[in-house]
Amino acid sequence: MIKTECHSLLNFIVFVDKMTNEIDSTQLPPISVLHREIPALAGINKYQHQQAQCIFVHTGVLAIITENGRYFVPPQQAIVIPADFLHEMLAKTAVKISVFCFTNEEATNLSVQPEVITVDHLLNALILESINIPANYDWQSPDGRLLRLMRDKFIIATELDTFLPYPKDNRLTDITERLLKHPSLKSDLKFWGKFVKASPRTLSRVFKKETSITYSEWRQRLNIQIAIKHLSLGDSINSIAELLGYESSSAFIYMFKKQMGVSPSQFLKP
Fold it and tell me: Domain check: are 65 and 196 in the same one?
């Protein structure tokens, strides 16, 4: 499944080289900071970095793609990525990000798996203040203490589940690849069973085994990711509901609130 999205990654080598060179520099302190802007649909093909990272998305929507699935990072939220973890990065819209890189010692208590986390008002303020920190700051200075506090806040932040798992079974990937391209399709497993020559019961069992969620739940998570992207672009709730094939905006709002805990109109509010 990871190959499905590779073709949409644009060549953005300048960003990759500059980021990698700065991260690998032995002159950097235990926590280093990078601030970048990435145009829509630009990204980085399969790569891994030597240090654990936490990427905060100021504006736009960032996708982190792994062999096991796709994480969406909404604006004003962040994602923790462990060191040496193979992944892709794709800007689903134009994004502005801050990348925080941690040495092994400073990353000890960070998540050992990719994890999208919520950013509260205090952590948001710390991140905004970090924009003024010079690259050669003193680790024992107030700047160093600010970054250590920020790291501690990353560690205890609440997880935001925007993960879309990818199945491996060829029959299921045939289905999910089509849904990724045509999310408004409302076909059930009975329809897909005829398409991939398998019974609905078999598809349901294998889907649950490989993704730990049902086909219906997977569809809802896909819809959530697409909705997050279009909400960040300022699209109306009515247009998003129509894009996703909902008969009414109220049905879409109900699904979104059930999955995310807040309504679509509240989701991007600080």
Answer: no
